[in-house]
Design a protein that fits this description.
It is a single chain. The two termini are about 45 Å apart. About 35% of the residues lie in helices and about 20% in strands. With about 400 residues, the chain is α+β, with helices and mostly antiparallel strands. Strands 1, 2, 3, 4, 5, 6, 7, 8, 9, 10, 11 and 12 form a twelve-stranded antiparallel sheet that branches. The longest helix is centred in the middle third of the chain and has 22 residues. It contains twelve helices and twelve strands. Helix 1 packs across helix 3 and helix 5 runs antiparallel to helix 6.
């Protein structure tokens, strides 16, 4: 981890910007034009407005000063998510995949060998660059690097540091702190008093709305009980395969935010100092929708879009429930404006998608939303979508012999 984020990446940037120990590029050609690098730094800064804070720390303008206030975690995020969009590189992304095949390990090994050979042509090549040649070997011996290229140890060291109150007996104080911290952890686990002993203020979701049929999310204020506009009522009725008149008899509330309550992260859509309204969602789509006479066959597809409305609809009478074939009295829907993805293809292995305009409104069940996504502004009103989840947030497709059950 330190090899990459605290040595290699800062050194590379110093090379690109002619700041490496006062040396120029000599007979080689690897420096990035200052105007181009300033544009990359500006794009990095503005990308922070459209990337949810749950993705990680906001990266500053790296073209202004890339050494004094950019942490290793910032370099990690920039390298894995912003640099592939702005510079289109991918070797480190392969290393950090959750699953990695033998073919990909061979690609990492050969890719780093070629990269190091090219880098060693420079008389300024530092010794730490040689360690890249052993990354593939380490993956074969210990598994994917996400298991050990992480920041928990650094955070734990930061947790230990305040315990050292004496320069004469530092190790005794460290030992005592580690033992007492372990004891508290066991007490929290055994007696289920983690909240009481956390010494952190308990955050209550005032006026939050939850429903047993939707255990994975909570709707948060602001909210209002108001019948949507006429065209939205029609769209909602179409999504529920019912008549608009039936919706007028139901209690419809519009909410401002939705929060995941089935994970430690608790991603909150539409509630962030950054733009946290873009999400990944998944729907079953008929592969033969254009062939009206052919029996439908559904496949799960991934979409990206912006949440515009959140609705909870409670049906008051049994007739409506029977007509809609519902097992619960409430449905929670999201109105999402989908991104129309462009044909521009990202480098292989990078989970990046591009779009320049939005499509028609989709009305989907709230459970189809998988996670928040970030966006990076490009030129000509184009955007790049960065998805941190990859396969971890994808919905599980349960195949059923009865095709009608998948509708």
């Amino acid at each position: 981890m330190h090899l990459i984020w605290e040595n290699l990446i800062p050194n590379l940037i110093h090379h690109w910007t002619s700041q490496f120990k006062g040396l120029d590029e000599g007979r080689e050609a690897y420096e990035i034009d200052k105007t181009c690098w300033d544009a990359i730094g500006e794009a990095t800064l503005w990308a922070g407005n459209t990337i949810p804070s749950v993705y990680g720390p906001r990266v500053p303008n790296i073209s202004m000063d890339s050494s004094t206030y950019v942490s290793a975690e910032m370099w990690s995020f920039w390298t894995l998510y912003l640099a592939p969009t702005l510079l289109r590189v991918r070797l480190l992304n392969i290393c950090l995949q959750y699953n990695i095949s033998n073919v990909e390990i061979d690609e990492v090994e050969s890719g780093f060998i070629q990269w190091v050979c090219n880098y060693e042509k420079l008389s300024t090549c530092p010794v730490t660059t040689h360690a890249l040649l052993h990354i593939a070997e380490g993956i074969c011996a210990m598994g994917p690097v996400w298991c050990y290229w992480a920041f928990p140890m650094e955070r734990y060291c930061g947790k230990l540091q305040p315990a050292i109150c004496s320069h004469h007996f530092p190790y005794s104080l460290l030992d005592r702190f580690v033992v007492e911290d372990a004891q508290l952890t066991q007490i929290k686990t055994v007696y289920d008093v983690a909240n009481e002993l956390s010494l952190q203020p308990i955050i209550l979701m005032h006026a939050a709305y939850t429903h047993p049929a939707y255990p994975s999310c909570a709707l948060l204020p602001p909210s209002m009980t108001k019948l949507p506009l006429g065209n939205q009522v029609t769209v909602l009725a179409s999504a529920l395969v019912t008549r608009a008149e039936m919706l007028k008899e139901a209690q419809i509330m519009e909410w401002g935010k939705v929060k995941r309550i089935d994970s430690d992260e608790g991603n909150t859509a539409c509630d962030d100092h950054c733009d946290a309204s873009f999400v990944q969602y998944e729907l079953y789509i008929d592969k033969y929708a254009n062939q009206k006479k052919r029996r439908p066959e559904y496949e799960l597809k991934t979409f990206y879009g912006q949440i515009e409305h959140l609705y909870s609809i409670k049906f008051m009478n049994a007739k409506a429930l029977n007509g809609l074939n519902l097992t619960q009295d409430t449905v929670i829907l999201a109105a999402i404006r989908p991104c129309v993805l462009d044909s521009l293809v990202a480098p292989p292995g990078l989970n990046i998608h591009y779009y320049s305009h939005m499509g028609a409104l989709d009305i989907v069940d709230i459970t189809t939303i998988q996670c928040l996504v970030g966006r990076v502004p490009l030129s000509n009103n184009k955007w790049a979508i960065i998805d941190q989840s990859e396969s971890l947030a994808c919905a599980l497709s349960v195949q059923d012999n009865n095709a009608e059950a998948m509708i």
